[in-house]
Amino acid sequence: MIIKLPDGSQKEYESGVKVKEITGDISQGLLRDSLGAVVNGEILGLDDEVFEDCDFKVVKFEDIEGKKILWHTASHLMAYAIQELYPETKFAIGPSTETGFYYDLDLEHRFVDEDLMAIEDKMKEIAKRDLPIEKIEISREEAINYFKERKQDYKVELIKDLPEDEKITMYKIGDFVDLCKGPHLLSTKKIKAIKLLSIAGAYWRGDSKNKMLQRIYGIAFEKQKQLDEYIKRREEAEKRDHRKLGRELDLFSMHEEGPGFPFFHPNGMILRNNLLNWWRGVLEENGYGEIQTPIILNEALWHRSGHWDHYKDNMYFTKIDGDDYAVKPMNCPGSILVYNSSNHSYRDLPIRLAEYGIVHRHELSGALHGLFRVRTFTQDDAHVYCLFSQVKDEVFKMIDLADYLYSTFGFKYSIELSTRPDDFMGDLESWNLAEKSLKDALEEKNLPYTINEGDGAFYGPKIDFHLEDAIGRTWQCGTIQLDFQLPENFDLTYVDEDGERKRPAMLHRALLGSVERFMGILIEHFAGKFPLWLSPVQVEVIPVSDKFKDYAQKIADALHAEGLRVHLDARAEKVGYKIREAQVKKINYMLVIGEKEETSGKLSVRKRNGEEVADVDLDEFIASLKEEIKNKTITE
Fold it and tell me: How many domains is the chain partitioned into structurally?
């Protein structure tokens, strides 16, 4: 059997190997610091185990899988603490998330912040008991009877909805038993630092027709130091919250008349348009033609594309002249119709079609979150139709574009290859070829990547880009998807050099991803302190009194004539107040105009970071700003 070692290498062992033979190839320090060993998807101890054919790997908290295991265990630990404090609680679900864990609870008592502290203390007390976490396999009937006796209605409903042949497992910590697939830690002792973060409402199964439950969010770590660092990052993240800065900088707003539909203000449109106009130019230089396709298309199209079978729960529908139509959730079928509107030769390929396509997707109200999760957004979509022999080069070009885009804003990024999901369209042979093509491209580029099993699109595997922002958070952003299914569904063809009709390959590519979401990421990444080329107001001109207003206007006009975005603050307010307000608005440069400036013809320049420069020539100031804009300089 093949066993994966922690350094990423693999080693072959005879079936029936004892754990000590494996651990000889793994540092004891790593074993001591690990959460345990995952064997065939289950976390096991390392004492006196004998392994037959299996997938064995040591898991640490630093691993994505390790975090999920610890946080999932922490959610059960929280439920156990709540059961001890509030025995009448009915438990719904308690998963790990990308940023921690939560549990949904049905309880007449309404939780407040003081309750969280009591639950947290109880969790710490239980964790110190070093309780084993036991896995229990049970029949469907026994599981239903177990939870019925304890009046745990939500668990009974979940079990009844499982397939008849589903293996039922439960996990036990002390007196708390929960329906769960696992895996979990071996005991509670690894959970050393806990923080319960917030209380929210959540409809059972996300359906507003169901009962509103209470949801408690939390985070847990192996060490107190990790929690302290997390709290510090969280405080910084709150300062950078794009919803808060969106209001302060007058960029966008959300309204109950259109939940999940953002309203962009003039400042927000300046930011958006500068971003998109620059990206338009980049795409044009890289051989893309821009198209625009309708927002509403008939239902038959979505059946043909496969979205009806795989995505209809997220779609909006309407009728036109008595016929059924859908509001598009994705842009690809429209691009395909453009491709199919004329005949193509192999000499025409690759054809690169870009679109800033507005899409609508039905998101649950509880999932909506500023610009990060909305019901309508614009994708910087592109679809490339090419020969199979051109796929690798086109993927290379897309990766280079992604690198150029993200480095422009100072983002580090990591790459993930997402493979065939359970709900896929097409045949295994074409999927295997598509996955191999993307994998080969990444490896030939010598790019490190991780595999995200089963997270591909229903029509093809994908390369995903995860950005790291200024405070270390990661965001899934761009994607490159290889699709052999839609060309088949829509009978896409080109004429090859022998005069025969053949099927092209199709690549989907979005690098900003959702423009709205990318803007939200930028707002938080820069904490509203945008690079000069993106700033809604680049220069604030501040006369010290009405006496110098005319000269200040002259300076503002000169800057405006050079294409700079300038605002004259001629209000009858104190200079200090106007400077502080400009700083709150994150304006890059402030020019304070008084008698000295009018007499000398020189400028006093105050930068956003508080630095001041006196006696600056106007032409030199303009030239330096133009250079900063041209280079897209990041100053902070």
Answer: 4
Q: Is the predicted pLDDT of residue 502 greater than 90, yes or no?
A: yes
**pLDDT tens, position by position, 182-194:** 889 888 999 999 9
Domain region containing 54: 2-60
What's 582's domain CATH number?
3.40.50.800
The model carries a pTM of 0.81
Alpha-carbon gap, residue 174 to 371, rounded angstroms: 42
pLDDT for the residue 27:
47
Q: Which of 75, 111, 127, 297 is nearest to 198 (CA)?
A: 111
Q: Using the 3D structure, point to which of 203, 235, 267 is the last residue of a domain.
A: 235
Q: Which CATH number belongs to the domain containing residue 188 in this structure?
A: 3.30.980.10
Catalytic residues: 332, 361, 379, 381, 383, 462, 508
Specify which residues 381 forms β-bridges with.
Answer: 355, 510
Residue positions in the annotated binding site for Zn(2+)?
332, 383, 508
Predicted confidence (pLDDT) per residue in 151-204, tens digit: 999 999 999 999 888 889 999 999 999 999 888 988 899 999 999 999 999 999
- Order of strands across the sheet that contains 539-543: 566-568, 539-543, 589-593, 602-607, 612-617
* Tokens found for residue 123: 């969790």
> Is the Cβ–Cβ distance between 89 and 106 less than 8 Å?
yes
Shared domain check, 187 and 54:
no
Pairing between β-strand 589-593 and β-strand 539-543 as defined by DSSP bridges: parallel
Rounded Cα gap, residues 548 and 192, in angstroms? 63
Query: Which residues have CB under 8 Å from 487's CB, separation 6+?
Result: 385, 503, 504, 505, 506
CB atoms within 10 A of CB 153: 15
Asked if the structure places residue 263 within a domain, the reply is: no
Give the end of a domain, one of 30, 45, 60: 60
Please say whether the beta carbons of 129 and 123 come within 8 A: no
Count other C-beta atoms under 10 Å from residue 390's C-beta. Answer: 18
Residue 390, sorted as left (phi over 0), alpha (psi -120 to 50) or beta, turns out to be alpha
Paired tokens of 330: 């994705």
- How buried is 282 (Cβ within 10 angstroms: 0-12 exposed, 13-18 middle, 19+ buried)? middle
Residues 6+ away with beta carbon under 8 Å from 132: 186, 187
